[in-house]
Amino acid sequence: MGFNRDRLQTLVFPPVVRTVTQQDALLYAVALGLGRDPTDTDDLPYVYEDRQAILPTIAATLCTPGHWVADPDLGIDADSVLHGEQAIQFHRRIPLDEPLTGHSRVANLWDKGPGKGALVEIECRVTDTQDRPVWTVNRTAYLRGEGGFGGRRQPPAPVWALPDRAPDLTRDMPTGPHQALLYRLTGDMNPVHADPAVAAAVGFDRPILHGLCTYGIAGHALLHGVCDDEPARMGALSLRFSAPAFPGDTIRTEIWRTGSGALFRCRAVERDVQITTNGTLTFSKGPLP
C-alpha cells in the first residue's frame, strides 16, 4: 500500500484529555537529565516535589495524538519518520491536576519532490475546563519516503541568522546511554529510540535520541539562562532539527540574547555536529495568567 495523501489530509484526530500530575512533571524533568548533580539546587524545583515547578516544554508531550504515523491506512513507513520542526506558544501557565483537552488537526502537507520526502505539520490546541487556550503546539514530521505526489511546496521560511559574535552564554547537558529509554517513558514509544534493529533498518547505527528530548534540554537552558527560572516569562519556543542526537551525546545549547528573547542552536559536543537550527525564544508580553 502506498502513501495515502488524501487520507492524511482529511485525518480527524479525536480530542485527547490529559491531567498533568506532579509525578508527570517530575518524570519529565528527570528524563531530560535534570538532577544529575544531587547538590545542584537550581534543578531541585523541577525534580523534587517539595519545591514543585513545571518545565514549560512538558507541553510538547501532552494531549497530542501520539504515534499517529503508524496508522496502516496512511501507508507511511512509520519507522523512517523524523521530527522536523517543533514550536510551542504558551497562553497560560500549565496547571497541575486539572483536565486539559488537546484538539489536533493536519495544518499543512508539503511535497519536497521525488526522492526528497514530504513534510506534514500537525497543530494541537490545548484548552482547560473553561475552554481557555493554555498552549498551542505545532510539530512538523519529515516523511522521508513519501515525496513526489504533486503536492504543494513549503514556502520559504523567514530568514534566521545568528549575530556575528560569540554566544552570550552556553549550557551543556550530558546525556546517558540510557537517555532515550528513560525519555520514552514520557509517552513517545517509537521503537527507533529503543530497538537497535529498527534503528539500523532506517539507517542509524544505534537508536537515536528523541528530538523532543533535545527540545526540552534547550528549553531548560533558556529558562535558566535568560528567563531567570520563571516559566511564565516563556511566551514561545521554536526550533528546527538538523541532525539526530544520540544517547551519550553532550548537548550544548548556545544562546544569543535579543531584545524580545533569544536565538539559539544546539550541538552534539563530542561529535561536533549541529543538531538544531532556527532556534527562537520569545518572551511573553506579560506574566502568563
Automatic annotation (TrEMBL):
It comes from the Bacteria. GO terms for biological process: fatty acid beta-oxidation. Residues 163-277 form the MaoC-like domain. One of its GO terms (molecular function) is enoyl-CoA hydratase activity. InterPro entries: HotDog_dom_sf (IPR029069), MaoC-like_dom (IPR002539), MFE-2_N (IPR054357). Residues 20-145 form the Peroxisomal multifunctional enzyme type 2-like N-terminal domain. This is Putative (R)-specific enoyl-CoA hydratase. It holds the Pfam family MFE-2_hydrat-2_N.
